[in-house]
Amino acid sequence: MNKSELVKALAEKAEITQKDAAKALDAVVDTIQAALAKGDKVQIIGFGSFEVRDRKARTVISPATREEITVPATKVPAFKPGKSLKEAVAVKKPAKAAKAAKKPAKKK
């Protein structure tokens, strides 16, 4: 799903115009981005949390030149899904399929 599809779905679900939905989505994204830029954590209960994590400096080898390159330490945005989101995405296997997958042991 891309941004325009998300805006359309949001507009239908909230019963607002696509223009208003686009403004709302942009406001949410801008607010989360500004909070992360300040180093704050953004938690949306049931959905997940956005935070800034520190990445250590490291040495890598360039595949093109085989030269060692030092990558400096940096901060990266991270998302940790909440329990409700994890449960909504998880695929539950039917009980019959799980039992059918097991092969009976051969008797000697």
Q: Describe it for me?
A:
With 108 residues, this protein is α+β, with helices and mostly antiparallel strands. The chain has a single domain (3-90), classed as IHF-like DNA-binding proteins (HU Protein, Chain A), CATH 4.10.520. Helices cover 43% and strands 25% of the residues. It has 4 helices and 5 strands; from the N terminus they run H-H-E-E-E-E-E-H-H. The chain has a 3-stranded antiparallel β-sheet. A two-stranded antiparallel sheet has the order 3-4. Strand 3 and strand 4 (68-71) form a beta hairpin. The termini are far apart. The mean pLDDT is 88.
Fold blueprint:
Elements (H helix, E strand, L loop, with lengths): L2 H12 L3 H20 L4 E3 L3 E8 L2 E4 L6 E4 L2 E8 L1 H7 L5 H7 L7
Antiparallel strand pairs: 1-2, 2-5, 3-4
Beta-strand content: 25-35%
Strand neighbour order, sheet with most strands: 1-2-5
Q: What ranges have pLDDT less than 50 throughout 5 or more consecutive residues? A: none
CATH architecture descriptor name: Irregular
What summary fits the major beta sheet?
3 strands, antiparallel
Task: From the structure above, extract its key features.
5 strands, two-stranded antiparallel sheet, 108 residues, alpha+beta, 43% helix, three-stranded antiparallel sheet, HU Protein, Chain A
